[in-house]
Specification:
Elements: H1 3-6, E1 33-34, H2 46-60, H3 72-86, E2 95-98, H4 100-112, E3 118-122, H5 128-135, E4 139-143, H6 153-163, E5 167-171, H7 183-196, E6 200-204, E7 226-231, E8 244-247, H8 250-256, H9 267-278, H10 280-304, E9 307-308, E10 315-319, H11 324-333, E11 336-337, E12 347-350, H12 354-371
Parallel strand pairs: 1-11, 3-4, 3-5, 5-6, 6-7
Antiparallel strand pairs: 2-8, 7-8, 9-10, 10-12
This protein binds 4'-deoxy-4'-aminopyridoxal-5'-phosphate.
């Protein structure tokens, strides 16, 4: 046996809570149609690629220096985007950015949770919330959802009152179910969270640009412990860029400075994100196409006889299967990669290009025929 194979991670003096755990991540398989990680299927348009090259060339001339530690120009641009698309006035002081919204969420937990503190999410939901909690030494509470995957306000309030968490996650639209949360539910959970401690409420809006409903961002007005988390990975089609951001009361942004690493956002990242913001309208045009495709997937899956959860995201949860993993494999055998998130009976497919969606629909129609 090689030296490497004989030494397991658990043989190292790692933290007890990491023992026996596996890293997060969907399989990166080389198949013709990949609809498993909620990416945007459209490559960035060529004029934007050119603009990124220009901006990065400019930034390269200054790479001997550390980047703008406060990412002022970028936060200005993100604030303008939020103001324009939500109608709610957002200033640069209310915005913070990091390497993907995962890093934003990690910084929030480092600031507001950590050892001896608790965070809650209503599951099934984005499993990284629990994993980032674990990585920051935060205790994790798995809160309830109804059988139709909506948040039961009464049960959620009761869980908050019982556990008195320091951070409450609300994901809207939710991953992997696609379910959006209405404003009344968020305000009710916020009130319960303030009565219990007070605690920070984080609304993860990674997919909100695809929603039938407006952003919950205006709810931050008068609610200093409410944070909206966003990303350029989905609507901006820039998952490879790694740019996430939050909007909240300026004092929340000040608080996050206590844990952020200095110069965490490279000059190349800042330049690229600024270029993408210049092309917002084109990118939001792709979002409209994806929304149409998402609605088509919902309708066609239902017409084929599958159960489908209403979706406000760029993906669709479908079932019901006795053995979802076996069906995942059968779809993969037909050249289409979807996601088994471990929700019993259900799988998730990301809305791709019309051609990719057709390939997926052909595969699941074929499966239905074989079963009947
Ligand atoms: N929140 C949710 C709900 C997500 O599904 C994802 C990505 N799968 C993220 C946050 C993280 O996105 P990123 O780090 O790429 O911004």
């Amino acid at each position: 046996m090689s030296e490497r194979a004989s030494l397991g991670i658990d043989d190292l003096p790692i933290r007890d809570e990491l023992r026996g755990k596996s890293p997060y991540g969907a399989p990166q398989l080389d198949v013709p149609v990949r609809l498993n990680t909620n990416e945007n299927p459209y490559p960035l348009p060529e004029p934007l690629v050119e603009r990124i090259a220009e901006r990065v060339r400019e930034a390269a001339r200054g790479l001997n220096r550390y980047p703008d530690r406060d990412a002022v120009e970028l936060r200005e641009g993100l604030a303008a985007y939020l103001t324009r698309t939500t109608g709610h006035p957002v200033t640069r002081e209310m915005v913070w950015a990091a390497n993907g919204s995962n890093e934003v969420l990690q910084q929030l937990l480092q600031t507001f949770a950590g050892p001896g503190r608790l965070a809650i999410g209503f599951e099934p939901s984005y499993s990284m919330h629990g994993l980032i909690a674990r990585g920051t030494g935060t205790g994790w509470i798995s809160g309830p959802r109804r059988a139709d995957f909506t948040v039961d306000t009464g049960a959620a309030r009761a869980a908050i009152a019982e556990h008195r968490p320091h951070v409450v996650f609300v994901t809207s639209p939710n991953n992997p179910t696609g379910t959006a949360v209405d404003a009344d539910t968020v305000t009710a959970l916020y009130d319960a969270a303030q009565a219990a401690r007070p605690s920070l409420v984080v609304v993860d809006e990674a997919y909100v640009e695809f929603s039938h409903r407006p952003s919950l961002l205006p709810l931050t007005e008068g609610r200093p412990n409410l944070v909206i988390s966003r990303t350029m990975s989905k609507a901006f089609g820039a998952a490879g860029l790694r740019l996430g951001y939050l909007a909240a009361h300026p004092t929340v942004v000040d608080a996050v400075q206590l844990v952020r690493l200095p110069y965490h956002l490279s000059a190349v990242t800042q330049a690229t994100a600024l270029a993408a913001l210049e092309h917002t309208d084109t990118l939001l045009g792709y979002v409209e196409q994806l929304k149409t495709e998402r609605d088509r997937l919902v309708a066609e899956l239902r017409a084929t006889g599958y159960e489908v959860t209403d979706s406000d995201a760029n993906f669709v949860q479908f079932g019901l299967f006795e053995d979802a993993h076996a069906v995942w494999r059968q779809i993969l055998d037909r050249g289409v990669l979807v996601r088994d998130n471990g929700v019993p009976g259900w799988l998730r497919v990301t809305a791709g290009t019309p051609e990719e969606n057709d390939a997926f629909l052909d595969a699941v129609r074929e499966l239905k025929k074989e079963q009947s």
